[in-house]
Design brief:
The complex is a heterodimer.
Chain A: H1 10-13, H2 16-31, H3 36-53, H4 56-61, H5 63-80, E1 88-92, E2 95-98, H6 101-125, H7 128-137, H8 142-170, H9 181-186, H10 189-212, H11 231-253
Antiparallel strand pairs in A: 1-2
Helix pairs in contact in A: 2-6, 2-7, 2-11, 3-6, 5-6, 7-8, 8-10
Chain B: E1 11-20, E2 28-35, E3 40-44, H1 51-58, H2 61-64, E4 68-76, E5 79-80, H3 86-89, E6 93-96, H4 109-119, H5 124-137, H6 153-165, E7 171-175, H7 183-198, E8 202-206, E9 218-223, E10 226-231, H8 233-236, H9 240-245, H10 252-260, H11 268-277, H12 281-304, E11 310-318, E12 324-333, E13 338-342, H13 349-356, E14 364-369, E15 372-373, H14 379-383, E16 386-389, H15 402-412, H16 417-430, H17 446-458, E17 464-468, H18 476-491, E18 495-499, H19 503-509, E19 512-517, E20 520-526, H20 527-532, H21 534-539, H22 546-554, H23 561-569
Helix pairs in contact in B: 4-5, 4-6, 5-6, 6-7, 10-23, 11-22, 15-16, 15-17, 16-17
The chains are: A mainly alpha, B alpha/beta.
């Protein structure tokens, strides 16, 4: 139901702050890369971690998201990206594919999937309580951080509710596969209204129940299991810093970009 | 805070009135109530009597989360609640609500119980100790690492209670905590409350189940925002006429005792001893049981000649998670039958029902509607003939008006626009909502919304109507109204399949019972024969009504109190 996988791997045991930093580090490193070949080390590390932690099962669950995201990104950037002066590789009617665009598009597709995989890995190995704690350590007020992370917990609940509502409306003859795009979109109104109404009711009840458990209390919080930064955590954090710095140096040197920086 | 208040009432309300914002009528009208430390008070009354409003006043969610006009004095643990917030009362008043999912926020049981203690700054060693004690009290020791999302409804509710108990509240207020639970889950919650009471906890329990009041110190009856009775349950529960007037279902033994003129409230064994001491009773049992049995048997025989309406042949269904819900289910349903699907949660009732109307496709076996395999039919063509009313009407209601809500399905099935208005009118009249066409469905009460959901299927004139726990969350008068509606539909020839956990509903209305256990049908036959097998039903965590248990001690199987009273009064 949820993305979190209750395992006891070394990644799960990392300090929550290091896990959050790891995700951000991948985002930064992947972001500055244009050349697909430089995305490959990131992809390799992520794949290894996904397999090791068992989060690859979540990748499989969301395989359509990864697949559609990859193909659409590849397609759109191939067809519509073309730096000025780039010689054409292929021209079909009004569409011209430049020499650079397929490679650039592959880099973008790998970048997008890298973002997705890093986020998925983080959510697969991090409890929402740990996520909220990590956010509070980077300066976000605890209540704001907790409320943000609740969204991750509630999304599957609403997806479940939507599934039930769809079944209930299908029993009343609602056919989602009939008609054009607009007609189909309109048919989701009988699904959206009950789901939204239910979500509002649930949010209201949860707010009251959170308060009833002292969520707004002014007393200083304590924690059942304090998170201790160990030497292994520091080592991983240093490794991550080294990796990000290396990618930033490469980016600054122009090795990661398809053309020199600043030329558009 | 708590220690200083030993000699004072822990709850004191004086002349409390509350009107919700935008409401025309007050929800509470001059409520005065005191509860002493260690008391177990049960509050009962029909929907709209003001019970939940009263509960919400005790932890300040009224007026903080439900604004309105609040007057009068409310004191908890000797302190006035004027200006207090829900957060101020955390750790003093625990409020358990019906929706257990809305009370759980964490990713494992241990973290869930610790959540409130962390917010209130409880020291770690104390936190760990309380965590162990709270989980032990609710019977969830060993569940520490479980994801709350994977627990059963009853376990989730017990976890919600443990999370509150860990804060060591002086008062536990439970607002219909068992409504969405199966009999096993309900029993477990009542056991937890009994354990808490033995430890001296103060409990205010709001319930529709009258059985909950039997072991309370006090019973408070509410109607129309007022407390109309407050006293010993043994006294108030015997006033059968008044309970019915207030929308509270009287207990079977109290109805029998009142009719027989007993001055006290005997238990089942004593009641059986008294009844069997009456010389004529055994003879009457013999005379009444046979014709009744013969009538039902004749009824069944007449259907034997009719072609089946729905059949299931060796149906197997396994969810993608690997959970096997149906393991080779076969049954035949003939036109005009009224059958009850019973069994504990997870036994396969809902899965079977969804297979019967084509919502789920079995991996093995076949479902046939009038001999045609559902696998060869589109869902919409099945749905028009086999209606499925979901447990929660809020999963389907979306329209601006009651009339539109009913017309929605008719339009989807391409019914002639001229016929839509008349069919809508007829369906709404059948469920007692005639003239409500332009009303906003979201402003209807739960019982009315449930009947509206039924109307939206009735308009399609299906041959079969499947209802998933149609009485859940309804008070006794609404439960009666719903089941009487179904009885009328059945009398007109509609085939009904009702999933229910409510023993008296099964006894009153169903002719045939299908008992499921772990995806297998373990009994399929006349209701009376099923109720005769008390041990089998108990194994499946279904408790027959008290009147049936009493009848068994007398040597027959009455399904309703009226049946037994016919024997007693002959």
């Amino acid at each position: 139901m949820y993305l979190y996988l209750d395992r006891n791997t070394w990644v799960h045991r990392l300090h929550p702050l290091v896990r959050l930093f790891g995700m951000v580090a991948v985002f930064v490193a992947a972001y500055v890369v244009e050349r697909p070949v430089w995305q490959l080390p990131i992809v390799a590390v992520l794949t290894a971690l996904l397999v090791w932690t068992g989060a690859i099962a979540n990748v499989y669950r969301l395989r359509y998201l990864f697949g559609i995201g990859f193909v659409m990104t590849l397609l759109i950037w191939t067809l519509f990206y073309g730096p000025d002066g780039d010689p054409p590789l292929l021209a079909v009617g009004p569409i011209t594919v430049s020499h650079t665009s397929p490679v650039y598009a592959l880099g973008m597709a790998l970048k997008l999937n890298g973002f997705l995989a890093a986020g998925l890995l983080f959510l697969s190995v991090t409890r929402i309580e740990e996520f909220a704690y990590a956010l509070s350590r980077v300066g976000l007020p605890y209540r704001v951080g907790f409320t943000m992370t609740m969204a991750f917990r509630l999304v599957p609940v609403f997806v479940d509710a939507a599934g039930t509502v769809i079944q209930a409306q299908r029993c009343r003859g609602l056919d989602f596969d009939r008609g054009g795009l607009w007609a189909r979109a309109r048919r989701y109104v009988p699904v959206i209204v009950p789901v939204v109404m239910g979500a509002l009711r649930r949010a209201d009840q949860m707010a009251m129940n959170l308060d009833a458990r002292g969520f707004q209390a002014s007393t200083p919080r304590t924690v059942l299991e304090p998170y201790v930064m160990r030497r292994g955590d520091v080592a991983v954090a240093l490794l991550l810093i080294a990796g990000v710095v290396a990618y930033l140096i490469l980016w600054w040197s122009g090795a990661l970009t398809l053309r020199p920086r600043g030329l558009g | 805070m708590a220690d200083a208040m030993i000699d004072r009432p822990v709850i004191a309300l004086r002349d409390v009135c509350f009107t919700y914002r935008n409401a025309s009528e007050p929800a509470l009208r001059g409520v005065t109530l005191t509860v002493g430390r260690g008391e177990f008070v049960v509050v009962m009354g029909a929907t709209g009597a003001g019970k939940s409003t009263l509960a919400k006043c005790l932890n300040c969610s009224i007026p903080q989360f439900h604004p309105g006009t609040l007057t009068g004095e409310i004191a908890v643990l000797g302190r006035s609640l004027a200006g207090a917030t829900v957060s101020d009362l955390a750790g003093h008043v625990g409020l358990v609500s019906q929706d257990f999912d809305a009370q759980l926020f964490s990713t494992n049981v241990r973290q869930e119980v610790a959540f409130g203690m962390e917010q209130l700054g409880v020291a770690r060693p104390i936190m760990q100790q309380r965590l162990i004690e709270a989980l032990a009290l609710v019977g969830l020791s060993g569940f520490e690492k479980r994801d709350p999302g994977t627990l059963s409804g009853g376990e989730k509710q017990r976890l919600a209670i443990a999370a509150l108990l860990a804060l060591e509240p002086a008062i536990l207020v439970c607002d219909e905590p068992t409504t969405d639970l199966d009999p096993l889950g309900k029993a477990a919650i009542f056991e937890v409350l009994a354990a808490l009471r033995r430890q001296g906890g103060t409990i205010l329990l709001i319930e529709h189940e009258t059985e909950a009041a039997e072991h309370a110190d006090r019973l408070v009856l509410m109607a129309d925002g007022r407390i109309v009775a407050d006293g010993a349950p043994a006294t108030l529960l015997r006033d059968v006429a008044r309970l019915e007037q207030l929308g509270v279902r009287p207990l079977d033994l109290d109805r029998i005792g009142t009719t027989c003129g007993w001055p006290d409230r005997p238990d089942i064994d004593e009641a059986a001893r008294r009844l069997s001491a009456t010389p004529q009773i055994p003879a009457r049992i013999a005379s009444i049981a046979s014709p009744d049995g013969a009538r039902r048997a004749a009824n069944d025989d007449s259907r034997e000649n009719e072609p089946p309406l729905l059949t299931a042949e060796g149906v197997e269904f396994t969810y993608p998670s690997g959970q096997r819900a149906l393991a080779g289910v076969s049954l035949t349903i003939r036109p005009g039958e009224c059958l009850a699907l019973i069994g504990q949660n997870g036994s396969g009732k809902t899965t079977l029902a969804k297979c019967l109307n084509g919502l789920l496709r079995p991996q093995r076996g076949a479902i046939r509607l009038r001999g045609v395999d559902l696998a060869a039919m589109r869902l919409d063509s099945v749905a028009a003939d086999v209606g499925y009313v979901f447990q929660n009407p809020d999963h389907q209601i979306f329209a601006d008006s009651v009339g539109e809500e009913v017309a929605f399905a008719l339009r989807n099935f391409g019914i002639d626009p001229h016929a839509i208005a008349s069919r809508t009118e007829v369906a709404l009249a059948a469920v007692g909502l005639a003239g409500c066409e332009s009303a906003d469905p979201f402003l209807l009460g739960k019982g009315e919304r449930q009947r509206l959901a039924v109307a939206s299927f009735l308009a399609l004139e299906p041959a079969v109507l499947i209802l998933d726990e149609p009485t859940t969350g309804l008070d006794y008068p609404e439960q009666r109204r719903m089941m009487d509606l179904l009885a009328r539909l059945h009398a007109r020839g509609m085939t009904l399949i009702v999933i229910t956990h409510t023993p008296w509903v099964v006894g009153h209305y169903a002719q045939r019972g299908i008992l499921l256990e772990n995806g297998h049908i373990v009994f399929d036959g006349p209701m009376r024969e099923l109720f005769a097998r008390e041990e089998l039903l108990e194994r499946c965590h279904f408790r027959v009504p008290d009147v049936t248990r009493l009848g068994h001690r007398l040597g027959f199987t009455p399904l309703t109190v009226d049946e037994l009273l016919r024997v007693v009064r002959l």
